[in-house]
Each structure stands twice: as C-alpha cells, then as structure tokens.
C-alpha cells in the first residue's frame, strides 16, 4: 500500500509578524552562539520584513543580502551591522 503525504517547507518568516516574536526568535539564536544560525534568523527576519525594502534601507543589493544571510557565509561585521540597522534591530549588553 502506497500512502502519499503532501508536505511543504516550513518558513519561519511567515510567523514573524510582530516585534516581540522577532526579538524572541533572534534572542534564542544569539543565546545558541552559532553564527550560521544567527545569519539564518536574520535572513528569516529580512524576508518577513521584505528583502527589497531592506535592500533600499541598507544600500546593499538583494543578491548581496541573500548571500550575506545564508548560513555558513562569512560576512563582514560591518555588513551584519548594516543589516541589523536596516531591520531596526538593536543589541544591548547586560
């Protein structure tokens, strides 16, 4: 008996619809300490807010943003800071 199950890829960006959810999602990634995970989370946030708008706000091309926010990439710190500023993300030390 063959049973076919339809699945689809889960997309976190579909659930990032308010600042509290976004902050918690990013905080969990930062606590994990894995830079690839943090980049992936920033990519999800960017997708939720709109990659075209982020491109406009940061002055970075869309293709460059996609490459920067790919897990495993090694972007420059100043690029990551530009992305976070464009997403209105502020880091605080405690």
Outline type:
globular
Q: Could you tell me the mean pLDDT?
A: 93
Q: Stretches where pLDDT falls below 50 for ≥5 residues?
A: none
Largest sheet: none
Give the structural class: mainly alpha
Whole-number tally of structural domains: 1
SSE string: HHHHH
Beta-strand percent range: under 5%
**Helix percentage:** 55-70%
Number of helices: 5
Distance between the termini: 58 Å
Strands, total number: 0
Q: What radius of gyration results from the CA coordinates?
A: 15 Å
Features:
94 residues; mainly alpha; 57% helix; globular
Topology readout:
Layout: H1 19-32, H2 35-49, H3 51-58, H4 62-68, H5 77-86
Helix pairs in contact: 1-2, 3-5
What is this entry, summarized?
By secondary structure, this protein is mostly helical. The protein has five helices and no strands.
What do these coordinates show?
With 94 residues, this protein is mainly α. The chain has one domain. Helices cover 57% and strands 0% of the residues. The protein is built from five helices and no strands. It has helices at 19-32, 35-49, 51-58, 62-68, 77-86. The longest helix is centred in the middle third of the chain and has 15 residues, at 35-49.
């Amino acid at each position: 008996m063959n049973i076919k199950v339809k699945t689809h890829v889960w997309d976190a960006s579909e659930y990032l619809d308010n600042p509290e959810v976004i902050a918690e999602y990013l905080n969990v990634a930062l606590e994990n300490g894995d830079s690839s995970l943090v980049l992936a989370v920033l990519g999800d946030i960017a997708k939720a807010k709109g990659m075209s708008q982020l491109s406009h706000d940061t002055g970075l091309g869309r293709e460059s943003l996609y490459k920067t926010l790919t897990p495993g990439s090694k972007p420059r710190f100043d690029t990551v800071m530009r992305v976070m500023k464009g997403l209105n993300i502020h880091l605080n030390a405690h």
